[in-house]
Design brief:
Blueprint: H1 25-29, H2 33-45, H3 49-61, H4 65-75, H5 83-95, H6 99-109, H7 119-131, H8 137-151, H9 159-172, H10 177-188, H11 198-210, H12 214-231
Helix pairs in contact: 2-3, 2-4, 3-4, 4-5, 4-6, 5-6, 6-7, 6-8, 7-8, 8-9, 9-10, 10-11, 11-12
Amino acid sequence: MQRIFILFLLSIAAARAQTPESPYLQNAQVGDRRAQYYLADTLFSAGEYQHAEDWATKSSAQGDMDALALLAQLKISGTVVAFQKAKSLAEQSVELGSKRGEVILARILTNTQAGKPNYPRAIKLLESASQDIENDSAVDAQMFLGLIYANGVGVAQDNEKATFWFKRSSSLSRSGYAEYWAGMIFLIGEKGFITINKLRALQWLNLSCLEGYDTGCETFEQLRAPAEQSRK
């Protein structure tokens, strides 16, 4: 459902979720708070941030904990980021028991744009979210734990731990998927969290390829080719 790290390379979906074809629209319109959240989440994944915020606001007003987490995520996903507001919303969602909220709050706590990072609390939140494998947020929590250890800022860099968490994440989605996204995040960076590092990008993309993820192989070869040409 959410796949938090698609934020880094979000592709606009062909189908727009605000159309009547949406499976959630009818129930959302009559006030079903969970349908409103699912509709907001679908719109968010399609890059329709304003429509997503409108429906998430309706859902959160009725007390939906995951809608609060989505609102927090929206605050750090648009062109104008608002980390302090996002943190307040994420804290509220965590208090209500949202696993998505735990992942979003951890992202905020490790980003310098939100103030002084708190890695111990972020890791504790992610470890909690990672245990509930029936919840989609476990995929993101495990992937993010891998990124923290692969990055080595705030904690000691530990590729063994990073690999462990990436593999756990990929086992819940697709083999090599988490490693691929790690490579892409190191390739493009994330302000306040990860700086661009092509060598680490190649490292994780190569592992993604070895795990059998075709897109990882393609991206690895594309990145490696210019480097090999420059050495000739």
